[in-house]
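Take a record.
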Amino acid sequence: MKEVILTNKEKINLENELQKHKSHRTKQFKFYLIIVVVGTIIGGIPAYIAYGHKSVNFLFGTLGFILVMLIPLTVGFLTSKKEVNKLTSDLKSGKKIEGKSTIKSINIFNRKIILSNGIKVFEPIEYYKTFKKGDLIKYKISPSNEFIFDCRKE
């Protein structure tokens, strides 16, 4: 395992991946925010018509429900921010990790490969179900292990 300086093409790939993560994160945040607000309004209108105008508690209940639904949304948004921060730090460092290692285990559900030196990579689509435990593979990844430049069988 050695650290190598990124080429211009790899820097561009990393920048594109970073922009893709940022735009996906904001798009998902807006989407779920709209779902929570619109869903609460749609669900609240019949309840308000039925007996909401008689009580102020209906308003507080609806606002409380929206706030409770926004808590997991905020946690998910902040969690996804970690990936963006890792990719940003990888881009600033300008290095990648290259090496060869044997496969220690493969997760059959998401095809995540754990190598004998502790590095985790995902099986590329073009090699789907061709890797086996004990195979020697060559990899090129970012230092934070968030982006895989190359992963192939040796």
Notes: Helices lie at 8-51, 57-93. The first strand starts at residue 2 and ends at 5.
